[in-house]
Amino acid sequence: MRRPGGAAREGERTERRAVRSAKPARSARSARRVVRAVAVALLLTGVTAGCTDRPTTHHKPGTSHKEASGSTGRLLDTKDEDGNRYREVAAEGAPSVEEFAARPGDDGWELALTVRNFRFTPDSVGGAALPGRGYARLYVDGKPAGRVYGKHHHIPEIFVPDRSHRLTVRLYADDHTVWAVGGAPVEQTITVSHPDGQSTPPDDAPDVSPDKPSKPAEPAVDRTLKITIDGKQVDPAPGRIEVKKGDRIRLTVTSDRADTLHVHGYDKEADLAAGRPASLTFTADRTGLFEVETHGSGLLLTQLVVR
């Protein structure tokens, strides 16, 4: 026979055992939550350290070029005609243009540059300012005439139609700051003259010298690509187009805004005026995969596969 109140005491003992058994379970769950929280914190810390321990060549979405700039050199208050600040570096080991030459070519002039302590990085333009990297800007008689993304560059004849011109190339960092030494931009200027020593006549001018041999006809175009840009839309949609090595390619692009057309690998480019078709013709004399894009809006237009 149980004593009076035995059932109540037995119930209390059962309740205490249940409480004791529940405590380890709650403790285990709490421990797991703490471990997960610490792991997440360590992961985030590692990601942050990875982003800040080394410079990046492309800025994060939502930040400007200046915010992405590295600590290379010292920014000066001096600016170029577009408002880009000068980036002062020490003379020793500074980027420089050693040689700058130009010769007449098809439909314009062919430029050849020899640079020192400098590397052209067209795929990183818009990123951080890294030592000795970037691109160049070309000026004809002090007026902007496009960007230069390699040691060889073509100037359309429309920019140099007259007898004599002053050509200037100036080196820029990827974040569009101007490389400078001693407060002066890193650049070089040369003077070019038209081969015949005269101004180039307009296309519709009458031929007043019949005995003069006619200009040889241009090689036939093997492939014409027509592309239209409307905002962020490219028509036809970007894809890969196969051509044969040696083919003459003509790109005709119509953009709804002013921009610059550029063929990577061939370092060919053309200015795009808003609403007006612009053509760029070249010979596909290199094999490989080459992207065609706009540099202002950063749109991929197509990819050329040359076999």
From TrEMBL:
InterPro entries: Cupredoxin (IPR008972). Residues 190-201 have a biased composition (Polar residues). Residues 9-18, 209-220 have a biased composition (Basic and acidic residues). Residues 1-31, 50-81, 190-220 are annotated as: Disordered. This is EfeO-type cupredoxin-like domain-containing protein.
